[in-house]
Write a structure and sequence with these properties.
The chain is about 20% helix and about 20% strand. By secondary structure, it is α+β, with helices and mostly antiparallel strands. It has one domain: GMP Synthetase, Chain A, domain 3 (2-Layer Sandwich).
Length: about 150
């Protein structure tokens, strides 16, 4: 798997070698039998799981963390053979919005179809609910230096 990044200065996508993350920390989803083209997904793996794993390789150019850890991905599902990714941005006017959508789409296509018989991948930008720092994973929050209050109790 490749890491997909957009350098903040140029806005040009660059692929950086990396390792394939495991989808253990991301939600699993069922793909109806026959919904994704035969041979597109390796045996024993769902297209939705592969999509979530691929999205952990798409980095936000300003924060240098992946879009899943930042809580920007709201969901991945199969809709009759079309993989739909719903994601948001840290701000509606984010200058990297077009690049992030394209990087997410290409990363998912690459992950679910190593042989080129990709299902259709649609990335939908949504702004409801609005993103907030509360959506950031604990590990990403630590890397960013975000301090979270312990729940009262």
């Amino acid at each position: 798997m490749r890491r997909h990044r957009v350098p903040p200065a140029s806005g040009t996508p660059v692929a950086v070698a990396g390792t394939r993350p495991t989808p253990a920390a991301v939600p699993a989803g069922a793909v109806p039998a026959g919904a994704v083209p035969a041979g597109a997904v390796p045996a024993g793996e769902s297209a939705v799981d592969l999509a979530w794993a691929a999205l952990t390789g798409v980095d936000d150019p300003e924060l240098c963390l992946d879009v899943v850890s930042l809580g920007l991905v709201y969901g991945v599902r199969d809709e009759a053979g079309r993989l739909v990714v719903e994601m948001t941005l840290t701000t509606p006017g984010c200058p990297a919005s077009e690049a992030l959508v394209e990087l997410a789409r290409s990363a998912v296509e690459e992950a679910v179809s190593p042989g080129g018989s990709a299902p259709t991948v649609e990335v939908r930008l949504v702004f409801d609910p609005p993103w907030s720092p509360d959506r950031i994973s604990e590990a990403a929050a630590r890397r960013l230096g975000v301090h979270r209050e312990a729940p009262a109790g």
